[in-house]
Amino acid sequence: MLNSLHRHCVWLQANWTDWLPELLAFQSTKLAIITDDEELATNIPLGFVISTSKAKQLLGQTLDILVLDVRWGLSLSQLSLLAGCVRGGGIFALYTGNILSWLKAPDHQLDRYLPWPLTSAQVPQPYKQLFYRALQQGPFTDYFPTTIPGVESESLELTPAQQTVQNSLTCTPVTLLLAARGRGKSTLLGAAAAYWQQQHYSVAVCAASRQQTLAGAEQFEQSRQVNSPFPFFSPDSLLASTQHFDLLLIDEAASLPVPVLVGLLSHGKHVVFCSTNDGYEGSGKGFGIKFRQYLRQQGISFIEHNLLTPTRWGENDPLELWLEALLFSGTMRVAQKWVENTLNIQAYHSQQWLEQTDLLDQTFSLLVNAHYQTTPDNKRWLVDDPSATTFIATQQGQVAGVCLTTSEGELPRELALQIEQGSRRPRGHLFPQSMLAHGGYSDAYQYRYWRVSRIAVSQAHQRHGIGSALIAEIQSRAVSANVDMLCTSFAFDKDVLAFWQSLGFSVVRVGVSKDKSSGTYSIMMARAIKPAAQQSLSKWVAEFRHHFVCGLPLRVQDLDLVSCWQLTQPLGEATESLPLSDTLRHHLGLFAHYSRPLETVQTLLWQALQPCWLSSNRTETILLLTRVAFGEIHTGNCQQFGFKGKKDFIEQARQNVAWLLSTYEK
């Protein structure tokens, strides 16, 4: 028998004409039916129908009844998100229609992930079989309950756990507040904003969108004692301002890139980062891992709170337990201890997953914990995309490392020309499309690539060579599979870049603007397998390095010079220096050996430095002279960089420019 605060789970297989009258008989004003069926929509009162593309608008709302129509497409991310909108005692219904027909039907959600020219009508969909099993084993009935309990008026009183957190928010510079959905995190945020305002603190609430703070704003309105507006600020507006608050509350922090979170730290005396920890919005749990690492590295004091008891529904709610088992059941079973010489690497693909459900759960669990961009939909993608292969490193049956690859390339020449000209952007094929559209490398279409889209190693197994072992296994299999080139793409990180460079991968592209999801630049790297591909790759790398160095004055606004240097360094092959023009040699010589003022040769100095970025290994000198050329170091601030004073700075600059001139042949 269900607890009155447990949610009812209903599986609708009959035609909607059979169950819709019964549903509408509940006469709930908090009903939502998510569907793209126009005929069904016309039979539902206005305001209760939402298209699947707009379903995310329900985030932050509380519903009595929600029906999710998945007949034409199953999105696990959407399922996870919408389930959290249903209150305790309410109804969550999945509408599949006839299950046998649904298992074979095309799926518009899957179509979004499949690479051109594939469609869901052309490929098997093994994940639907896994989902069918989960439905059969879940808490679903095929009928609605006779009644649903009414909603008691919500108390403004916080729970003891919430009260404890609220009172501690100004005890330390940073607070991390983590909770699964339905634990009252947003309610606490709104109540805390009102409470601390009443204590005469300046308070701001920040989130990626105002929609994410609806529950908090409602609680704020109910809790406030003065007629003040909800103090919402977008991240962009805060970062662009000089505003500083006594208390800054950031909701759904995991949906913001870590560089943005770092920037927000300077806008509050006390900063609270609130987030769900189940990855339903595509944040995964990488937020907690990476952000904690940053805080510790910077010596920033923080405390962490976890809200464990649900407030929106009862404990041991059957829908919550079912979703946890469906999406995150492998969380506690990822390998925890390194054992020498026991690593085993295998590849899994498509229908092989039907017999490896436990391994699938462990694999997805590791990805959720390692990558902030991991979404529930990714679990279906790695099973259903025929171009995807998952390489798994295990120890004694437990997952220690995971690497996801996708097969790309071998595009028709006509399509490649359209991509290069900017008139087509087919699904998938990320690497060759970028080489064509952004790099202008016309021969990129013809090669077959394996792109590493995700790589993760459990914390207990890092620094043991598992990542390298995975790539070595992929390389070996790529040779047998007649692959021309391995490639990868990732958000810029010095350690990640060094990892790929150590494996022989070269940078071929750096994004021209920061990626919205990561807050930094995207990087593309490649390693050739076949000689013909190596010839092309060498040309791509040379062109990239030349263009990147020429545009360096623009890059240093967002990327430090050490990072830029790392991005442009060759893998062993140095580029020969070009002769220096007589004009440059003359002007720089007057500075190096005589009394020419530095300010008159800064632009000329950068012209002479550019070839050194492509050929010299005297890193410190080149970086120092580049900072001088760009005006980062000058007579007014030189002591901050270790110089004794203006005279010492100019003298050493002259000596270094003299060395620079000596590197060029006359």
What does this structure look like?
Keywords: Acyltransferase, ATP-binding, Nucleotide-binding, Transferase, tRNA processing. One of its GO terms (molecular function) is tRNA cytidine N4-acetyltransferase activity. Residues 343-530 form the N-acetyltransferase domain. By secondary structure, the protein is of the alpha/beta class. It contains 26 helices and 19 strands. A 7-stranded mixed β-sheet has the order 13-14-15-16-17-19-18, sandwiched between helices. The longest helix has 20 residues, at 531-550.
Task: Describe, in short, the structure shown.
Residues 343-530 form the N-acetyltransferase domain. The protein has 666 residues and is an alpha/beta fold.
How do the strands and helices of this protein lay out in sequence?
Elements: E1 8-12, H1 16-24, E2 31-34, H2 38-42, E3 49-50, E4 63-69, H3 76-83, E5 86-95, H4 99-104, H5 108-111, H6 126-137, E6 140-141, H7 160-168, E7 174-179, H8 185-198, E8 203-206, H9 214-223, E9 232-233, H10 235-239, E10 245-250, H11 258-264, E11 268-276, H12 286-297, E12 302-307, H13 318-328, E13 343-348, H14 357-370, H15 376-384, E14 388-395, E15 398-409, H16 413-421, H17 430-437, E16 448-457, H18 466-480, E17 485-491, H19 494-502, E18 506-510, E19 522-528, H20 531-550, H21 552-555, H22 561-568, H23 582-593, H24 602-615, H25 619-629, H26 646-662
Parallel strand pairs: 1-5, 1-6, 2-3, 2-4, 4-5, 7-11, 7-12, 8-9, 8-10, 10-11, 16-17
Antiparallel strand pairs: 13-14, 14-15, 15-16, 17-19, 18-19
